[in-house]
């Protein structure tokens, strides 16, 4: 081991005509992570670089940059992510002349999943439209596939390496100037200011500028189960305080927990929760929640994990000092907090310290090693030729950021760099399982339910892992206020007109949630002047007695309104899967296809979705609608097929 000084930030050359714009459209954050990596790559090539979401830029900004790189995921049924929709709509304006982007030079990288029929459609549509408006592709677009053995990286890594080569070929550096090596530290983007004065823990309940601290609103911090319950008679947060809070989050809501019930037996391997929430009246009066929509929850870290990190990084003495974020010219995307906070609160509420470290995180902390062996090893994990070692170290064992910092104990970076090093906690989306408008006179506007399988598993290191949001949900108790946001579905299959059409739904596990909400709505319409179409539900899981979700409700519904066919794979010696049961109803499925049926498939397996689609294709052929499999595929392509797989 060689003891060394931590790296100091290098200075970037100020070269005219050398500016890069890296944009992303992302739902889960994967596209954003790649965009940030590409932004650092262009910085190392001495480009003045801006990284931002697509909705944050105007169309004419593309003309101000030497090159534009766009990273975008495909969501839903070939749809654009929410944070790219405004930009996409601006591209579709009819008044735009064909050559308005003639001087723009761009490339795109798409993130997709080939188990969906419209694989990487968002990237393809965006790429094509930019070319229609005159923009020039300076490097062939890339398309990553989650189904590849190494996931998106299998395509992204070689694509990005070749992209760097092409950029240097088109834009060579002047004599005497070389690219900034990966071993050098780039200037930090976000540096927070920490007051030297300690702030008493009890006085942190009110933030600057009248913005309330989340803790003062009885939000879950995860210190203990008892701490999550509202004390009897405790003062409830004012409407003004809640309004301040939700205004910080796009489409923000404050929901109150009614119940958090385990619906699988305690001896069952999977802990599935049925959560009930009230949405208070102070939410926007225009709020409209429909089947297919999601509720996004914003989890927090457990106090013991925060304490461990503070100890590892030796930040305990300043953990409760005031941090003023008002001095930042910009914030990381998704950082929702008041200007006045503390390091402890940032680590508890905003920064994902238990995430699996991405290569960009390992590269960032490598610059703060005082052990040369540590630095060399961390940098190896970031190189494409060592991708398998990175997977073996980080991804496959599901190592956490805290564990990496414990192992590479020579890493000590200034706490002022936390926003530059740690990823931001991202909200988790859950399909809404039940939607009920509240009774007149109630202090809430909606009652919602979620069906959530808590993530808990054993890794190759024989360690038990529990997901961040799963730990958070496990602690939720009746009366807790929870920060959330409403995510509307981009595909509308609800409402009276669609309720008249036949519905053939396929679900496994908690994938039944959005279908449950849709069937509820269809039955409500049936009680009015809108007779609903035939509804057929195929549900698959392991055991009828352990994970047949909503079984009592299905049984209570009249068979003339709903037909349920089940496949429980572990209840008999010979395994039966959902696709087997679909084939048993070939004629019924074919008859519904004749009547403009809606097909919906939801669950946690892309293989299941593929198997259901293949079974439907066979039903169309066996049921007499088509003679060949090719004809059946073409016919299914003309019908409504909506799938939600995670």
Describe this structure in words.
- By secondary structure, the protein is of the alpha/beta class.
- Among the domains are: 19-170, Rossmann fold (3-Layer(aba) Sandwich), CATH 3.40.50; 496-645, Rossmann fold.
- It has 21 helices and 22 strands.
- Strands 1, 2, 3, 4, 5 and 6 form a six-stranded parallel β-sheet that branches. A six-stranded antiparallel beta barrel has the order 8-9-14-13-10-17. A five-stranded parallel β-sheet has the order 20-19-18-21-22, sandwiched between helices.
- The longest helix is centred in the N-terminal third of the chain and has 18 residues, at 153-170.
- It is globular and about 75 Å long.
- The two termini are 44 Å apart.
- Mean pLDDT is 88; it is low at 202-218 and 220-239.
> According to CATH, what is the topology of the domain at 19-170?
Rossmann fold
List segments where confidence is low: pLDDT < 50 over at least 5 consecutive residues.
202-218, 220-239
Task: Spell out the CATH superfamily of the domain at 19-170.
Answer: Flavodoxin domain
Q: Give the second-level CATH assignment, the architecture of the domain at 19-170.
A: 3-Layer(aba) Sandwich
Largest sheet data: 6 strands, parallel
The pLDDT mean sits at 88
Proportion of residues in helical segments: 25-40%
Structural class by secondary-structure content: alpha/beta
Assess the beta-strand content as a share of residues. Answer: 15-25%
> What's the count of strands?
22
Please report the first level of CATH classification, the CATH class of the domain at 19-170.
Alpha Beta
Instruction: Output the radius of gyration.
Output: 26 Å
The coarse overall form would be: globular
Number of helices: 21
- Give the CA-CA distance, first to last residue: 44 Å
């Amino acid at each position: 081991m060689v003891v060394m000084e931590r790296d100091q930030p290098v200075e970037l050359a100020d070269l005219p005509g050398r500016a890069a714009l890296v944009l992303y459209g992302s739902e889960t954050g994967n596209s954003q992570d790649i965009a940030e990596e590409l932004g650092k790559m262009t910085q190392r090539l001495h480009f003045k670089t801006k990284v931002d979401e697509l909705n944050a830029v105007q169309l004419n900004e593309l003309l101000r940059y030497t090159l534009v790189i766009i990273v975008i995921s495909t969501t839903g049924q070939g749809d654009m992510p929410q944070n790219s929709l405004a930009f996409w709509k601006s591209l579709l304006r009819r008044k735009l002349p064909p050559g308005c982007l003639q001087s723009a030079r761009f490339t795109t990288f798409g993130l997709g999943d080939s188990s969906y029929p419209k694989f990487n459609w968002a990237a393809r549509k965006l790429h094509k439209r930019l070319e229609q408006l005159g923009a020039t592709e300076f490097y062939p677009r890339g398309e990553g596939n989650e189904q590849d053995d190494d996931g998106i990286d299998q395509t992204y890594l070689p694509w990005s390496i070749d992209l760097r080569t092409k950029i240097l070929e088109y834009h060579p550096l002047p004599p005497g100037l070389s690219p900034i090596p990966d071993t050098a530290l780039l200037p930090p983007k976000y540096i927070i200011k920490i007051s030297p004065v300690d702030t008493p823990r009890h006085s942190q309940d009110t933030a600057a500028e009248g913005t309330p601290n989340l803790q003062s609103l009885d939000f879950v911090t995860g210190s203990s189960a008892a701490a999550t319950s509202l004390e009897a008679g405790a003062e409830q947060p004012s409407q003004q305080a809640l309004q301040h809070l939700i205004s910080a989050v796009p489409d923000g809501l404050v929901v109150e927990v009614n119940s958090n019930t385990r619906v699988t037996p305690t001896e069952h391997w999977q802990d599935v929760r049925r959560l009930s929430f009230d949405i208070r009246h102070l939410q926007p009066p225009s709020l409209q929640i429909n089947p297919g929509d999601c509720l996004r929850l914003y989890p927090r870290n457990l106090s013991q994990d925060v304490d461990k990190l503070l100890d590892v990084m030796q930040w305990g003495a300043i953990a409760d000092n005031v941090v003023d974020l008002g001095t930042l010219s910009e914030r990381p995307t998704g950082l929702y907090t008041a200007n006045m906070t503390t390091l402890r609160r940032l680590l508890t509420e905003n920064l994902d310290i238990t995430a699996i470290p991405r290569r960009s995180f390992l590269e960032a902390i490598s610059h703060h090693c005082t052990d040369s062996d540590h630095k060399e090893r961390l940098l190896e994990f970031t190189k494409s030729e060592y991708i398998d070692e990175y997977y073996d170290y980080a991804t496959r064992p599901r190592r956490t950021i805290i564990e990496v910092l414990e192992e590479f104990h020579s890493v000590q970076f200034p706490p002022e760099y936390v926003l530059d090093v740690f990823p931001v906690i991202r909200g988790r989306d859950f399909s809404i399982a039940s939607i009920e408008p509240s009774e007149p006179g109630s202090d809430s506007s909606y009652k919602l339910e979620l069906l959530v399988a808590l993530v808990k598993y054993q890794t190759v290191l024989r360690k038990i892992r529990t997901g961040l949001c799963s730990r958070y949900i496990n602690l939720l108790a009746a009366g807790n206020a929870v920060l959330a946001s409403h995510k509307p579905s981009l595909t509308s299959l609800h409402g009276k007109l669609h309720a008249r059409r036949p519905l053939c739904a396929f679900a496994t596990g908690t994938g039944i949630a959005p279908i449950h909400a849709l069937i509820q709505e269809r039955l409500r319409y049936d009680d009015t002047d809108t007779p609903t179409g035939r509804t057929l539900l195929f549900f698959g899981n392991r055991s009828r007695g352990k994970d047949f979700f909503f079984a009592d409700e299905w049984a209570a519904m009249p068979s003339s309104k709903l037909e349920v066919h089940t496949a429980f794979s572990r209840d008999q010696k010979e395994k039966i899967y959902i696709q087997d049961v679909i084939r048993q109803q070939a004629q019924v499925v074919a008859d519904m296809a004749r009547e403009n049926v809606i097909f919906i498939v939801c669950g946690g397996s892309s293989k299941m979705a593929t198997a259901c689609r293949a079974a439907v294709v066979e039903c169309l052929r066996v049921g007499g609608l088509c003679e060949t499999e090719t004809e059946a595929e073409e016919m299914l392509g003309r019908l409504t097929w909506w799938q939600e797989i995670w």
